[in-house]
Amino acid sequence: MTTSWGEFSSGALSEIISTGASLVYIIGGETAIPGAESKLKKQGISVVQISGADRMETSLKVAERFGAARAVAVYGYDLTAMDDALTLASAETLPVVFYGSADAGFGNSLARMGIGRLELIESPALDTIVSDSIYSAGITTSEITRDTKNTVEAMLDLVRSRIDEAGVLVRSIKDAETLAAAGLIVDAKINMQSAESSFKAGKYADAFKSAVSAEESASYAIAVYSGRAQGRITEAVEAADLGIAQKGVAVVKEDLRAVGAPYGVGIPVPILIDFSTYLVDIEGYNKSVEIGTGLGFDYDTVGKYTRAVGQTVMVELYEQDSESSAIEWAKLTKFYETESKDWMNTTFMGYPASKKSITVPVSDNMNQEVFLRVAVGRLGIFTKFTQSVRKSDIDTLLLHPLVAQAMVEGVTGEVIKEIEANQ
Question: How many CB atoms lie within 10 A of CB 251?
Fold first, then answer.
């Protein structure tokens, strides 16, 4: 049976006891399955614990313990290949051994324990250092090939889901645990960005390795939120606790924002509940808030900020299914299959954004419009400035486009600050 990493629940203990087993093998150390050995021994059950410094070493110790001349080999962090490895291993009663990156001793370790043949599942992370070690140890292989591009795409999809899963857990950043988890989510997003960039450039091995790093950080964040802070996660929590003690929560949140800002990665924000509370009063504007449907677009909440006659900044809030969906929304340049030109992808306050500024004469009016879309967590913020005046009023009313843009950014910034304050 399996249990979540960093946890040995009472349910797992009860399930083992119900089998009547007198001997239990624990695969993994105290960090992976804390308390398992002591709890089982208290029940009078004999225990053999098999563990190593990491999952690679643990898998080798398992293979050595039970003895085998053949094994299924797979990259230890290739989650997209695990099902294939387990299916093959189960069908032929073979152990699964993990190799790591640049593992020059992998082949010798296998040979030492008597493994002379491998069913080797290809991975984008399988480098020549590992493969050379296998061949130089005299081990024969049957390679199970996979389409590299499809493999990386599958890994990217898995990591996106993992990051979204971690993001859904965010409630607030108020203590060492939540700060550490938020930092891990930021790290996951930065690595994911690197993975997607490498994938687009056709550098599949680099994309895969960055995706693996992103998945690990996101999974660790989930573990923190689930109360499973073990091993290296404990170090992250301790560092966060020290930072809060020295600087305070507000400052360490700004530090975290600075880490993500160069990559367009904002700090995690909580699940959105009452959108209207984010549309705060802003000095110099008259505000009105509505909940409902806009013209042509379904919005969750809209607020109008009016400074002078004809000068309106409107903020529309849209909840997305996930953070990745919100980012795609922010980069949208098409409306009803029609390309809306002159959009520029950028960042705003460290969050993914796009903006557009136009001044177009229409009939007897001069229309000024500035648009800004920002993805904050699962929230899409669409802010726009519009002003329509008669030509005879241009000298006294029409704003310079940069002034209009500053109004849009000022209002958007206040809304984002309110969202973050709700953490």
Answer: 12
